[in-house]
Each structure stands twice: as C-alpha cells, then as structure tokens.
Write a structure and sequence with these properties.
492 residues; alpha/beta; FAD/NAD(P)-binding domain; 3 domains; 7-stranded mixed β-sheet; 5-stranded parallel β-sheet; 20 strands; 35% helix; binds flavin-adenine dinucleotide
C-alpha cells in the first residue's frame, strides 16, 4: 500500500467540488478549493441586480435527503444551515391546446389531477408510484451510491427479477405507456429527458424514477433561492476547515511521468500536490487543463445547451406559479429538432421559474423575479448560438407562447434583463461545448459506462461533478462528492 499525501487540491467550487471537499476534510485531508469565479456554486450561482435576486441555474431542489445526509456526515443538521420552503404544487405543465397538469406531493391532489386528465387512471397511478418506488430504492441502494467500474459486478448486486424490473431495455416512453394512456401524463413525466440528453423514446425506462423522486420527496426552494443552499454548504465546508480561494482560476493541472504534481493558477502561482480533484467538467479538464495534454481523450455525448433569461419584472405576472413547463404541440418533433436536426425547436419547449412567488424577498415589493430556460443544441452544432439574433429569436418565441397561453407579460415591464447563452455558460463555468447539464445519460453513459471519477492515465487525478458518476443534478453531484472521497481513500 502506497503512503498518501494528506493534501488535496480541488479545482472548482461547484456543488460537487464542495461536497468532495467536505467528505475529504472529514476523512482528515487538508483541502484547498480553487474557484475561478468570485463566488462558489458553479452553475448554481446567483445574480443580484437592482433589488432582484436570480439563481443562474437550478430552480428547484429535489431529494432533500441527500443534503440532509451531507450535513449529518459532519454531525450537523441541514436545517440549521438551510431553510427549505416546500413548493406545492411543484411543477405545472402546459400544452398549446389549453390542457394543463400540475404535480403535487400530496397524493390526494395528485390523484385528482391525474383523474382529471385521464379518467379512471387512479389505480394505474398507484401502480406507477409503487413500481417506481421499488426502482428508486434499488437504484440508490445498489447502483447509484457506490463506486463500481465493472458492469458485471455492478449488475450482480441485483437479482434477475430486479434487473428486469429496472426496465433498462425499455424506453422511458414505453415504460410510462405501461401505466398511462393519455399523452399528457406521458409527455409530462417524459419531458425530463431533455435534461438528461435524450428523448423519452430513447432513454431507458429506469428514468421514471425521476418523476417519482420529485413526487415522493417534494420540490423545495431554499430561503434566499437555490443560492441559499450553496451558502449553507459553503459555510459547512469553511467551519470544517476547508480552505476556499475564489477568483483563483487554474490554467493547468500539472502531470509528470503519469502522476499529478499539482496545479498552476492563471496568475502563475504553482501549488504542488500529489492529489488533485477536478470539479471542472470532465471533457473540459481532459481537453484544456491536463498538461501535457493526454494523447487520447474519449469525448462523451453531451446534454443540450441552454439560453437562460433572468428578468426583473415590474408588478406581478398572473398565471405563472413557481415552475411552469411549456410543451409543444408535437412533443416528439420538439425532441427531434433539438437532438437530431440540431436546431432550436420552432414550437419551443421551455420552462419558466418565478422564485419570488415562493420567496418574495427575491424581488422588490410587488415585483417579480423570473427565470426562463430555453434548450438549444450545443455550440459545435449551431455555431451562431451566441449571436444577438439567436437570443432575440428565442426571447420572441417565449413571449409569443406566453401570450398565446394567455399570460400577460408586456415586454415593457421587463426592467432588468440578463441573458446567458451556451457560450456564456462555457466561458464562465467551463461547460464543455456549452452543454448545460454535462455528459448525457443515455444507456451507455450511466453507471460503470460513464466517465469514471478518476483518471485512468494520470495517477492522483480524480473527478467530481455532472459529467462523471453518478451523474447530473444537484443531489447527484453532492452524492458524487462522497463517492470521489471514498475512491481516493480506497486507492490510498
Ligand atoms: C440552467 C440550469 C438549470 C438547472 N436546473 C437544475 C435543477 O432545477 N435541479 C438540479 O438538481 N439541477 C439542475 N441543474 C444541474 C446542476 O446545476 C448541475 O448538475 C450541478 O450544479 C453541477 O455541479 P458540478 O459539481 O458539476 O459543478 P459546476 O457547477 O460545473 O461547477 C464547476 C466549478 O468549476 C469552476 N471552474 C471551471 N473552470 C475552472 C478553472 N479553470 N479553475 C478554477 N475553477 C474552475 C467553475 O467556475 C464552477 O464553479 C441545472 C443546470 C443548469 C445549467
């Protein structure tokens, strides 16, 4: 067994980097996090302007147990650091024909809503929830929450019956079709595919656990916005003695004779360390940071890009709850245009979040803080994504759709506007090819098939975050931080 440096440098202070830092610190390591931006949080960042507070990325917190466990690992209580506010009804789906469907963690409300859309579907909803609860538990207990590189060993933790129950070989749409006849419920639960980088017609049926997880554990907004969560986790890290340096961009991860030697900051400063964890998107780390560059890099398929709008609106916006997903008339075509034809879908699927509806302190009294997310192809697929014309086109399609759906938002009421294009996301946070959610979650990019949380060519170099295991989303990268820390300890 080799003796191991007890010092570790983490490049990037996103949620994965912070979680890895906390777990490594708890295991006795001296941890330094180097973050290029002025604030930690990564994609879960914050913009404050003229009394409006916007979260840049995530707008809802799910699987609160993951965050509770993070604080519990440190002997602390989550709610002493973060004040989660329940958002219920959590998400409303809206179609062009006027149909709407709202999700709630209250079973009676959910059943009534499903019954309204698909009369007689109550037993099927209960069967769906029961089935997905088993899949969810199996996935987290046996698959997601552990380091395993060997596909056979990964699956061998499950019985044959359990494997078939996971519906890995059936599409998500096919899986939902087993329970729901009406397209509305199938499209609502299948729409999550967009953030996983696949259409529900291609993604594995296992992902029915996503909608289940949200229904079972609820959706939440921390007081102060999602950034309230980041602040709480940052505070925990600092209390434990993790050193966090912001405005400290790393230009190179230094490698000699196949071993990591430390990092070089853009300022020229060199920090030596035999252990480096990169929280920067894995393909960005491998193509831009490792020095000398590896001779061969396997680039994963990525999730789409996004154009995000942050609007400070005078007055209230009637008809929009906390989170509304606008779906196109032809659902399959929307996915096809985005993922195969590589264009911004003409009948745009997009979502809005109005966090000030849940926490009024996020906007001046009587005003509205609003976030809009428009999915786009990647930078390499649609190169003029950063152009003002493209931004104007996306904005106009959003405003037209809001108008068509009877939501009164006179653009003259938008007093504050900030926009991030995929190029902004790339530049500001190092997101590879402008991909918003990291490596896609198609069948051969999950579990042991996904980029591992350690480099196979550079000893001492580890990864954490959306593009490595277990995957994307705030709870996943926080779990990933624990897995990376365990990996480092296991290889000591
Ligand atoms: C628009 C949007 C909406 C989303 N909505 C949700 C949601 O509602 N719920 C949910 O759970 N998830 C959501 N997600 C996904 C979630 O935000 C991410 O999966 C998660 O935050 C990624 O964390 P990460 O650990 O990979 O780090 P990242 O957030 O990618 O952070 C990496 C950090 O590294 C820093 N960095 C990059 N290069 C360097 C360098 N050279 N030197 C030093 N530091 C560097 C970056 O500045 C950044 O702080 C959303 C994402 C986006 C973009």
């Amino acid at each position: 067994m080799k003796s191991m440096s007890r010092e570790v440098v983490i490049v990037g202070g996103g949620l994965g980097g912070l979680s890895a830092g906390i777990h490594l610190r708890l295991a006795g390591f001296e941890v330094t996090i180097l973050e290029s931006n002025a604030k930690v949080g990564g994609r879960a960042n914050q913009i404050e302007v003229d009394g409006f507070t916007f979260d840049t990325g995530p707008s809802l917190l799910n699987y609160p147990w993951v965050f509770e466990d993070l604080f519990k690992a440190a002997g602390r209580v989550f709610t002493d650091y973060v004040e989660p506010i329940p958002v219920d009804p959590s998400v409303k789906f809206q179609w062009r024909d006027g149909t709407s469907f709202s999700l709630s963690s209250n079973l009676q409300s959910l059943m009534a809503e499903c019954e309204r859309i698909e009369p007689g579907c109550r037993p099927n909803l209960l069967a769906f929830l029961h089935d997905a609860s088993i899949k969810y538990r199996m996935s987290f207990e046996k698959l997601v929450n552990r380091n395993e590189d060997n596909p056979l060993k990964w699956f061998s933790s499950l019985t044959l019956d359990e494997i078939s129950r996971l519906s890995v070989w059936r599409s998500l749409n096919g899986e939902l079709g087993r329970f729901f006849k009406k397209r509305y419920i199938r499209e609502a639960f299948g729409s999550y595919g967009m953030y996983l980088g696949g259409s529900p017609y291609d993604l594995p049926g296992l992902f029915s656990i996503l909608s289940y997880g949200e229904l079972a554990y609820g959706l939440w907004l921390p007081k102060g916005g999602i950034y309230g969560l980041v602040r709480g986790i940052e505070r925990l890290a600092l209390e434990l003695g993790v050193a966090i340096r912001t405005s400290a961009p790393v230009s190179r991860i230094l490698v000699e004779s196949g071993c990591v030697k430390g990092v070089e900051l853009r300022s020229g400063e060199i920090i030596s360390s035999g252990l480096v964890v990169s929280n920067v998107d894995v393909p960005t780390t491998e193509t831009e940071l490792i020095s000398p560059a590896p001779s061969k890099v396997r680039l994963p398929g990525m999730t789409p890009g996004v154009i995000t709008f942050y609007w400070g609106i005078r007055g209230m916006v009637d008809g929009l709850g906390h989170h509304t997903i606008f779906l196109p008339e032809d659902f399959r075509l929307g996915f096809d245009e985005l993922l195969n034809k590589k264009i911004i879908p003409r009948d745009l699927p997009f979502y809005t979040a109005v966090p000030s509806a849940t926490d009024p302190d996020l906007a001046p009294p009587g005003d509205t803080a609003m976030f809009v997310l428009v999915p786009t192809p990647l930078l390499s697929e649609l190169p003029n994504l950063h152009s003002p014309e493209m931004v104007t086109l996306a904005k106009q399609r959003v405003l037209d759709r809001l108008h068509d759906d009877g939501i009164d938002l006179d653009p003259n009421r938008i007093a504050v506007e900030r926009v991030y294009t995929p190029e902004d996301w790339r530049q500001q946070f190092g997101l590879f090819d402008g991909s918003a959610f990291g490596a896609a979650h198609t069948l051969f990019q999950v579990g042991p098939f996904r980029s591992r949380n350690y480099s196979s060519s550079v000893e001492g170099l580890y990864y954490v975050g959306a593009s490595t295991t277990p995957g994307t989303g705030m709870p996943m990268v926080v779990l990933g931080g624990k897995l990376t820390a365990e990996r480092i300890q296991a290889r000591a």
